[in-house]
Amino acid sequence: MVGWGWLERPVRKAAGGEELGALLGFLRSQRGLAEELGEWAFYAAVALILLALFKRFPYRYFFKTHRLLAVVYLVLVFHSVVLMNSAYWASPLGVTMAVLLLAGTLAAAISLLRRIGGSRRALGHIEALELHKDNRVLGIDIRLQDRWPGHQAGQFAFVTFDPAEGPHPFTISSAWQGDGHLRFHIKGIGDYTETLPQTLTVGDPVTVEGPYGRFDFADGKPRQIWVAGGIGITPFIAGLQALAEQPDGRSIDLFYSTAAPDQTFIERLQQLAGQARVRLHLLVSGRDERLTGERLREQVPDWRTADVWFCGPAGFGRSLRESLTASGLPAADFHQELFEMR
Questions:
Q1: What is the CB neighbour count within 10 angstroms for residue 247?
Q2: Is 304 exposed, middle or buried (0-12, 13-18, 19+ CB in 10 A)?
Q3: Strands, E, within 263-311: which ranges?
Q4: How far is CA 13 from the centre of its chain?
Q5: CB atoms within 10 A of CB 68
Q6: Contact 337, 306 (CB under 8 A)
Q7: Is there a smaller number of Cβ atoms within 10 Å at the N or the C end of the chain?
Q8: What are 264-298's pLDDT values in tens digits?
Q9: Of 107, 149, 115, 145, nearest in space to 127 by CA
């Protein structure tokens, strides 16, 4: 009948054309919603980032509100997909955007489902507690029930004592012996850590996630200088234990500055330093002269050949770094633990 001219030949549509048109039509219908949600999501992102930078905001709340950034990101993905010119999707720009948005969406889903670090978590229980009252440091021995991959001296882990509080980052202050035992030294300097001596008991369940961090004393130089301020001594305790178990022949000086020396704590540190063959320099605030770059250079004449590893208050570390680098130490040879998560 088409051949006789009674009917017109139907126009063939590309496969999937109707579905694609419907999808584009739906996206166009959502432009108003996408614009409004995108604007509010931007404001929410700025507020959450500023809140994260406000250090007085308690960590237990920051840990929860920070996860809201994943929700904000998903809203911005919707905003971008709807408002992006449909002609761009077939271009290299569109393909790149699609890959990035998909990767970000998967990451946001993993975060919201609390799967980040899931493969690194191990269950255990508190095996022993020891409070050093003079420096307000609580020693916590943990026996792990699950497999632990092992860690390098100087690394840290996220530890959950109370699920309602959530995980907190603490440096592991014991070398790994392959026996499922971890030790942490935690100083009561915050609204949460101050309560641990009263709230923790032997036998309490614990979740440990890690290890993380690159403050591992691995530089290859035979000469090192370690500097610790306050509770920043914890990675060096693990380092001393590792050297006591397996000496590597390096020559090391450890400077430990503290404002609240605990006799038992100091005696154990001195004993451990002796076993590791590390020269310990104890500096007590108010009694000894403050450690400066000049004084360090006087105490360690061959400092130019050494790597410096520092863990402690940021201002203390910055002062030492500036003094030593100004005197010729390469900046790459000064390693500083951030000491703070935000």
A1: 11
A2: middle
A3: 279-284, 307-311
A4: 54
A5: 15
A6: no
A7: N
A8: 999 999 999 999 999 999 999 888 889 999 999 99
A9: 145
* CA–CA dist 94, 74 (Å, integer): 18
- Under 8 Å between Cβ of 129 and 140: yes
**CB 203 within 8 Å of CB 124:** no
Tokens coding 201: 């008991």
Burial class (CB in 10 A: 0-12, 13-18, 19+), 120: middle
CA 67 to each of CA 72, 104, 109, 156, 178: distance values in angstroms, whole numbers, following the listed order:
9, 14, 11, 21, 34
Instruction: Pull the structure tokens for residue 193.
Output: 């850590």
* Three-state secondary structure call for residue 9: coil
Residue with tokens 């999937």: 16
Task: Please give the helix or strand (H or E) that residue 26 lies within, else none.
Answer: helix 17-29
Cis peptide before 211 (omega within 30 of 0): yes
- Rounded CA-CA distance 252/274 in Å is 12
Summarize pLDDT for 209-229 with one digit per residue, the tens. 999 998 989 877 899 999 999
